[in-house]
Amino acid sequence: MSDDKVLDILTEIRNWTRAAAFASVKSLLVEALPDTKTRAAYQMLDGKSTVRQVRAACKMSPNGIVALAQRCTSMGLMELRDDKKRVRLFDLNDFGLLASESEASEKR
After folding, report:
1. Who's near 81: CB < 8 A, 6+ residues apart?
2. Local structure of residue 94 (DSSP, 8 states)
3. At 86, phi and psi to the nearest 5?
4. Domain with 79 in it: what CATH number?
5. Which domain holds residue 55?
């Protein structure tokens, strides 16, 4: 079997897996990230932002950020990279779980 054929098959499997798991993943994200603060912190933990930046932007304690990252990693929502950074696996925008700027300002 050619590499292109294998890649096509794997891509199709990935797409079906994504579709089948969407509701389960969204439910798990809602459970792990119950409020806008934890959701914003999770979204920022993309491997580019530092814990200090996340802490300042989300007004969370360093221990709170670490606890959130550890909990999300154990739930399968984040991964621990070789450089010891925990990085989110899902974009909350894909699940409609981030408040838009207009919604956030209306709540203030």
Report:
1. 47, 87
2. G
3. -90, 130
4. 1.10.10
5. 3-90+99-107
Q: Cα Rg for the chain, rounded, in angstroms?
A: 16
Of the candidates 100, 98, 96, the one whose C-alpha atom is nearest the C-alpha of residue 23 is 96
More confidently predicted of 27 and 105: 27
Buried b (16+ CB within 10 A) or exposed e, 89-101: ebebeebebbeee
Considering Cα of 58, then 46, then 78, then 53, what sign does the dihedral take?
negative
For residue range 16-71, list pLDDT tens digits in order: 998 999 999 999 999 999 999 999 999 999 999 988 999 999 999 999 999 999 99
Asked if 39 contacts 97 with a C-beta cutoff of 8 angstroms, the reply is yes
Q: Which amino acid is at 71?
A: R
What's the structural domain count of the chain?
1
Task: Count CB neighbours of 30 within 10 A.
Answer: 12
User: Can you tell me the distance from the alpha carbon of 31 to that of 68, in angstroms, rounded to the nearest whole number?
Assistant: 12
